[in-house]
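Query structure, 195 tokens:
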């Protein structure tokens, strides 16, 4: 093989390596920009629902009344140092909890949860069954990740959704709007990395 052809082969190999390196660095740069863009969007995206002034997030001893809160149901405020697991709570589940379940639930909100507060007291049984099924379906579409449904009789509508500092009331449940609320507000809280 001549010296000239060896030089040409070396040059061609170096060009391939350079192209491969440029493609790799371009892909890494694009991925970094995408991640930064998502982080910025997450920080500035508009929240869904009505904003409620955020109250002190101090911990109070379990069993103590953590209220009063500036909204019903609460969107922030004093709470217990422990939270409840994600999932759908029935009235029977709620009755088995210690007093002041809102103290646990506000801690969930501080960790970025979204809560469906529902009231079937003014609904006929079939309407209540339909409502709870729709809520559960919406929660499942959200992968049951950081979502809770909890019975709450003091609300004036069948469902109120809350997240940290945000509240959305539903005269009649709308799964599409509920999903939008979850997407816009889940993990928008002081401690979103906590479970």
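Result returned for the query:
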């Amino acid at each position: 093989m001549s010296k000239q052809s060896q030089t040409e082969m070396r040059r061609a190999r170096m060009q391939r390596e350079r192209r491969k390196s440029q493609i790799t660095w371009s892909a890494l740069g694009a991925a970094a920009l995408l991640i930064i863009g998502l982080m910025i969007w997450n920080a500035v995206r508009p929240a869904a629902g009505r904003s409620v002034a955020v109250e002190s997030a101090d911990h109070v001893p379990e069993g103590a009344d953590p209220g009063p809160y500036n909204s019903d149901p609460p969107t922030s405020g004093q709470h217990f140092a422990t939270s409840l697991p994600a999932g759908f709570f029935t009235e029977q589940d709620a009755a088995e909890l210690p007093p002041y379940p809102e103290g646990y639930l506000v801690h969930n909100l501080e960790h970025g949860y979204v809560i469906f507060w529902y009231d079937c007291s003014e609904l006929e049984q079939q309407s209540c069954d339909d409502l709870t099924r729709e809520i559960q379906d919406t929660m499942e579409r959200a992968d049951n990740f950081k979502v809770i449904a909890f019975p709450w009789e003091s609300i004036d509508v069948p469902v109120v959704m809350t997240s940290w500092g945000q509240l959305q009331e539903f005269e009649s449940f709308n799964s599409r709007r509920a999903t939008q609320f979850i997407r816009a507000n889940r993990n928008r809280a002081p401690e979103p990395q906590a479970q």
